[in-house]
Design brief:
It contains 7 helices and 4 strands, in the order E-E-E-H-H-H-H-E-H-H-H. By secondary structure, the chain is α+β, with helices and mostly antiparallel strands. The chain has a 4-stranded mixed β-sheet. A hairpin with a 5-residue loop joins strand 1 and strand 2. Helix 2 runs antiparallel to helix 4. It is flat, with a radius of gyration of 20 Å. The relative contact order is 0.17.
Length: 190
């Protein structure tokens, strides 16, 4: 089900696009307390320190001397990289990877699973098999059970949030508050 040629990550983040929390599976060697499944709040990651660092890094990018149109056109990708790097630093700080979010020590591997589309559609046995395939060698049976329970809960909440967003889009389209179009169905081409 998953490409295991790349090996497994030291930290795997399970992201739910419509929710304000996510799961971190921390299997770093030498982690105090051993491998863990942790629920993290986006509010703890995207705090004032995060925004200050992103603003500072963005300011450095746009104040580069001799910026031409070509560099200006690449600005969205640079901003995305700044947001991604600072988000990762804050998450690692929350997990105790770094002594502070100011540290640039990003050793180890981090994997990200976005629970959207077909991944969000996994049923119970498929989810169980996927978890076993990804984590059976690094997590004990009770930790895998805990992970599965958390994923089932968050997947259900994400599905409800997606349905509510679609209903709001349709309601806005009917009332005219959403403009002249709305996405009713989206295909990723699979």
């Amino acid at each position: 089900m998953f490409d295991s040629e790349r090996g497994s990550a030291d930290i795997t983040l399970c992201i739910f696009p419509h929710l304000r929390e996510f799961i971190a599976i921390d299997v770093r060697p030498g982690r105090t307390g051993g491998p863990a499944v942790l629920s993290l709040s986006i509010a703890n990651v995207l705090g004032e320190e995060f925004y200050s660092r992103v603003e500072r890094d963005f300011s450095e990018i746009i104040r580069q001397h001799e910026m031409g149109f070509l560099e200006l056109m690449g600005l969205p990708q640079q901003v995305e990289a700044v947001v991604r790097a600072n988000s990762l630093k804050r998450i690692l700080a929350e997990l105790g990877k770094n002594d502070s979010a100011n540290s640039d020590d990003l050793t180890g591997t981090v994997g990200v699973l976005f629970f959207a589309g077909s991944l969000l559609g996994l049923d119970g046995p498929q989810l169980h098999n996927a978890i076993q395939e990804l984590f059976a060698e690094k997590l004990g049976p009770s930790t895998i059970e805990q992970l599965e329970e958390k994923l089932v809960d968050l997947m259900g909440r994400e599905r409800r949030a997606v349905r509510e967003a679609l209903q709001q889009d349709i309601g806005g389209l009917i009332s005219g508050k959403s403009g002249s179009w709305v996405t009713l169905w989206e295909s990723s081409g699979n």
